[in-house]
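Hi there,

I know you've been waiting on this one. I reran it after we fixed the sequence typo, so this is the corrected version. Both the input and the resulting structure follow.
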Amino acid sequence: MRIITGTARGAKLRAPKGLDTRPTSDRIKGAIFSILSDKVIGRRVLDLYAGTGSLGLEALSRGASSAVLVDKATAAILKANAEHTHLSEQAAIRSGDVQAELARLTRMVRPDSRFSLVFADPPYHGGLAERTLQSLDEAAGELLAPEAIVVIEHGGDVELPATRNLSCVLTRRYGHTTQLSFYQRADYLAEQ
């Protein structure tokens, strides 16, 4: 695993030992950033279930302004990878349960510092993708900037539920195991 392009291009990322963390492959990461293109520049990023930090650090390398990386199990690896890529000044690491951290961030965020790009890559089974999407939908007005883009990586056999405040604008399938779903705020889309 490595940073694909930008200021930290080629930097290798440490990964935790064992099978508890499933890092986003370079192929999937490349697809995400190809779809986002220059929409990463200047964004305030929230990386949920960050694992190695591959998505959040890639966004910083490509010009995002700041990132909050959340993962209960890999905070030490996130910190080491942020330092190794020389992106630690722009990256805040939060060690905690994603749902609890989402609630905490929603209470803390100011309107001028809401997140404009969110990555969520939870374990594929156990309903975490659905729960995370629901939590983001409920907090959309407080947590997400009007132009926010939410990218959820989930299992190929998982159908994400309909949401009220977020609209799915694109879904891509990669093989039998992985889907990417891109969301934007429904009120923002209605104004466009």
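Quick highlight: The mean pLDDT is 94.

Best,
R. S.
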